[in-house]
């Protein structure tokens, strides 16, 4: 087992020195940094930080969107034996100030003038902050490149300082403080160490079966542990290449350029791809539409029988025809090399899972949390179980409490919440079990199924317990629905706040010759309301009567971070949403 995440990096550098590690777009063209180049930058940056007087244990924050400098800084701070504090670039200045003060951050790397201005606005409120560095050139501010130059000078005087520091890393020492975005209350600093990270990387990769020739497309924020560990450290462990998307809005275009074999994403992207495929089929001729759905049905039958070892020659021929007519064309649009989509961060709809499986791109679902150094469970490749987030990785224990809560124990548990021993004791019990806050169950083959967050369970006034997540995710499979928040705790029935897919709805309105002068007026139109009423009714087939949404409201604008309705990882803060839309919710339950 490796001593640290940094040792994993240098092990791959020794094996693949000339191989591309990072591919990124800058100065109007694609550029690359090899494994060897990254290793040298990590070494020089660590020397540069030493030259500036930074020492083991110092907290160093990173406030930036995804750039290759981000992971280089991450590794360099590890080499210094400092503590990395990732910060979401979307956070407001006061939210950043809270984290900087709580963690007692001494230095911070910012991406550009936008992030630099946030820090200068709050610097007087953060007495611990002594140094600000920037990735992009800014007048009067030390840049990443300047630190590399200073590091080269320092390395001449102290040639072995980096290697000596690296070898004194204690696997158990704090190496990163990751602040949970928190759907309730202030963010909590999760204390994480190399031993937990290395364990999670090695055991997760054993399930993922990555290869040195894999290419990952990176677009989720590195400030979230999901992208940092699953999208960076795991591929680096296997000597793979990481291709940065130019931005969240260019992901589809960048897929064609990067031609990735693996992509780490939240379910929403895969759901949008699946919806787009179905939308195209629906708008095609009757023949093309029938071929598409016949192919999907054939693909599902083929993969189901292949798992059972019951594929006959006739089914094999039908599947090869479906590949030629549909599947290969879809794969070509995804770059032609796509091997495994990886989904995490939220449950994935079974409908989306089935479409990707039929095509021959089985989605690997995962489940984890910051408090466990990330990954708890992963789907074994090619062994999907609909509705499940996979099996627990080797070396840990998972059990279900009497009230249905998922409990976890093993080497991947956090060291605790920083400066919050009382809250730590509430989450990790005396027997060493972490209480995840998720409700779920294990089947006879140890597949883990999650139903919802414990705190999200709606209890109606009639005493019925309702998990909102499965209903919300089912409703979001509609191409007309972007987001849903169910309400109804201590009420007679369940209602929903619905964020429409605005652009698709506008197109529908135009094709149905509905005039409107604003989104508000469009959402009040009787035909629109009827459309959503029918969609919601259609998608709730199979749910119990008491689980079904009885009333709903269409919102003219999406949930937003500016109104504090979403966490930085885009999870809904239900209490905030319920407060912000209190009048609408009350109207659902007015008598008569």
TrEMBL record:
CDD domains assigned to the protein according to its UniProt record, in alphabetical order: VL_LC_FACS_like
GO terms of molecular function: long-chain fatty acid-CoA ligase activity
Coiled coil regions, renumbered to chain: none
Domain AMP-dependent synthetase/ligase: 11-418
Pfam families: AMP-binding, AMP-binding_C_3
Recorded catalytic activity of this chain's protein: a long-chain fatty acid + ATP + CoA = a long-chain fatty acyl-CoA + AMP + diphosphate
Gene3D superfamilies: 3.30.300.30, N-terminal domain of ligase-like
GO cellular component, one term: membrane
Keywords of the record: Fatty acid metabolism, Ligase, Lipid metabolism
PANTHER family: AMP-DEPENDENT SYNTHETASE_LIGASE DOMAIN-CONTAINING PROTEIN, LONG-CHAIN-FATTY-ACID--COA LIGASE
The protein's name: AMP-dependent synthetase and ligase
Source organism phylogeny: Bacteria, Pseudomonadati, Calditrichota, Calditrichia, Calditrichales
């Amino acid at each position: 087992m490796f001593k640290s995440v940094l040792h994993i990096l240098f092990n791959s550098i020794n094996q693949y020195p000339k191989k591309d590690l990072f591919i990124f777009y800058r100065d109007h063209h694609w550029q690359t940094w090899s494994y060897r180049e990254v290793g040298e930058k990590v070494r020089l940056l660590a020397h540069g930080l030493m030259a500036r007087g930074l020492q083991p244990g110092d907290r160093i924050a990173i406030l930036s969107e995804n750039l290759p400098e981000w992971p280089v800084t991450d590794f360099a701070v590890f080499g210094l034996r400092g503590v990395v504090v990732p910060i979401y670039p979307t956070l407001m200045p006061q939210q950043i100030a809270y984290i900087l003060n709580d963690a007692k951050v001494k230095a911070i790397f910012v991406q550009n003038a936008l992030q630099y201005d946030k820090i200068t606005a709050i610097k007087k409120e953060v007495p611990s902050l002594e140094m600000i560095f920037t990735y992009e050139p800014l007048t009067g501010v030390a840049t990443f490149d300047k630190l590399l130059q200073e590091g080269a000078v320092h390395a001449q005087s102290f040639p072995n300082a980096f290697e000596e520091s690296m070898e004194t890393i204690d696997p158990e020492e704090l190496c990163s403080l990751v602040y949970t975005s928190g759907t309730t209350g202030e963010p909590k600093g999760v204390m994480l160490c190399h031993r937990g990270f290395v364990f999670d990387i090695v055991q997760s990769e054993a399930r993922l079966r990555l290869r040195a020739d894999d290419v990952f497309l990176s677009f989720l924020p590195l400030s979230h542990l999901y992208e940092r560990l699953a999208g960076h450290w795991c591929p680096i462990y296997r000597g793979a290449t990481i291709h940065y998307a130019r931005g969240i809005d260019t992901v589809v275009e960048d897929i064609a350029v990067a031609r990735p074999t693996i992509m780490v994403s939240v379910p929403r992207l895969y759901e949008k791809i699946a919806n787009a495929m179905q939308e195209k089929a629906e708008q095609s001729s009757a023949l093309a539409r029938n071929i598409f759905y016949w192919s999907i049905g054939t693909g599902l039958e083929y993969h189901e029988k292949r798992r059972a070892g019951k594929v006959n020659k006739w089914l094999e021929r039908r599947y090869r025809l479906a590949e030629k007519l549909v599947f290969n064309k879809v794969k070509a649009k995804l770059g032609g090399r796509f091997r495994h989509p990886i989904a995490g961060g939220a449950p994935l709809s079974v409908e989306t899972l089935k479409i990707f499986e039929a095509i021959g791109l089985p989605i690997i679902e995962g489940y984890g949390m910051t408090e466990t150094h990330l990954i708890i469970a992963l789907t074994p490749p090619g062994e999907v179980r609909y509705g499940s987030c996979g099996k627990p990785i080797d070396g840990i224990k998972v059990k279900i409490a009497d009230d249905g809560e998922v409990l976890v124990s093993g080497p991947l548990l956090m060291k605790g919440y920083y400066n919050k021993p009382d809250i730590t004791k509430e989450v990790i019990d005396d027997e060493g079990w972490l209480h995840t806050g998720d409700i779920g169950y294990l089947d006879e083959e140890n597949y883990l199924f999650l139903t919802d967050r414990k705190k999200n369970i709606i209890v109606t006034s009639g005493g019925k317990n309702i998990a909102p997540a499965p209903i919300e995710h089912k409703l979001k499979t509609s191409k007309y629905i972007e987001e849903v928040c169910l309400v109804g705790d201590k009420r007679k029935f369940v209602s929903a706040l619905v964020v429409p897919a605005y652009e698709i709805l506008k197109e529908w309105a135009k094709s149905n010759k509905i005039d409107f002068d604003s989104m508000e007026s469009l959402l009040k139109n009787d035909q629109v309301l009827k459309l959503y009423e029918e969609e919601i009714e259609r998608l709730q087939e199979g749910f119990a009567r008491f689980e079904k949404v009885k009333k709903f409201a269409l919102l003219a604008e999406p949930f937003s971070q500016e109104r504090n309705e979403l966490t930085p990882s885009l999870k809904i803060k239900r209490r905030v949403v319920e407060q912000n839309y209190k009048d609408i919710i009350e109207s659902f339950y007015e008598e008569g």
